[in-house]
Write a structure and sequence with these properties.
Elements lengths: L1 E7 L2 E7 L4 H22 L6 H12 L9 H13 L8
Antiparallel strand pairs: 1-2
Length: 91
């Protein structure tokens, strides 16, 4: 069993891996921590990042190209909006 703890999205995250050696676990921990922190930067609602850039472009230009890394986030939010009958609407 391999364990790692790190901070991402403003919270403490504990990860436990079973059935992998220490080198494999360290690679997985490093990749996961990097990806979560990258998503935090890209998706943050008010700190500089891809989402704030997209929102600014939409507000000032009325349209914008959606970066590929934001598409899953936006598409998921759109699905939740439809499924909730508009009760959840991130727009």
């Amino acid at each position: 069993m391999q364990e790692q703890q790190f901070v991402a999205f403003g919270t403490l995250i504990d990860v436990t891996l079973h059935g992998v050696d220490a080198a494999q676990a360290q690679q997985a921990f490093t990749t996961l921590e990097h990806d979560l922190n990258q998503w935090h930067r890209d998706w943050h609602a008010w700190q500089p990042g891809l989402l704030t850039d997209l929102n600014r472009a939409l507000a000032t230009q009325g349209e914008a190209d959606v970066p590929a890394t934001l598409r899953p986030l936006i598409e998921g939010a759109q699905r939740l909006s439809v499924q909730s009958g508009g009760l959840f609407d991130p727009a």
